[in-house]
Specification:
eight-stranded mixed β-sheet, alpha/beta, about 190 residues, binds S-adenosylmethionine, globular, Rossmann fold
Length: about 190
Amino acid sequence: MRKHAAIEAGHSAFTQSSYFTDKVAMRKQVCSKLSAVDVLDLFAGSHDIWDAVGCDRYYGIDNYLKGGNLPIDNRKALQYLDLSQFNIIDADAYGMPYEQIQMLYENGTMKSGTVVFFTCITGPMNRLSRRLIDDFGIDSEYKRTRTLFNRYGYRYFHQMLKSHGINEVVSIIHDGSMRKEYGYFIVK
Ligand SMILES: C[S@@+](CC[C@H](N)C(=O)[O-])C[C@H]1O[C@@H](n2cnc3c(N)ncnc32)[C@H](O)[C@@H]1O
C-alpha cells in the first residue's frame, strides 16, 4: 500500500484496489507495529476482515449475524463495555458510524493510543442519524434539503472527530455517486 498526496487537510490517502483488500491491508499495516492486537469489532458481521488480518484477542458484536458475535445492537453494548481492554476498535459500518464513535468517547474507558478503524459511506439517499442532526442543530435545514445534507454528511463526521482532538485521519476515499471512506485514527 502506497501513500500519495493528501486530498483534504489532515488527510492521508492510499491508492485503491478492492475495498476488502484495502481494508485488510490497512489493518495489517497498523497491527504490524503493535506488540498485541486486542480487537473490539462493533460491526462484526462474519468477521471476514479480522479472520484475514489475524489478532491476539477478538470480541465481535453484531445485531444480526450471530456466528460467535455478541448478538446485540452495538449502541447497547457501548453503554457498559470496558473499552480499556482493547487497543483496536473497528467500526466497519454500512453507513456512517457517527453515533457509535460519539458513544466510544462518552463511554469514558477508551484508552489513549487506541486505533479506531471506520467505514463512512455517505450519499444522497443515506440519511443522517438523529444524533448527528441534533449535535449540529441542523434539523430545519435538513428537512428542507435532505439529499444535499446526506451527500455531504461526511463533513459532519470529520468535524465530530476534530471536536475530539483528532486532526489526522488516514483513509482511502472512493468518491462517486456515493462517497466511501475507509480509514482509521488514533485516540488522543
Ligand atoms: C459491513 S458489515 C461488517 C462486515 C465485517 N466487518 C466483516 O469483516 O465481515 C456491517 C455489519 O454491521 C451489522 N450492524 C449494523 N448495525 C449494527 C448495530 N447497530 N449494532 C451491531 N451490528 C450492526 C450488520 O448486521 C452487518 O453484519
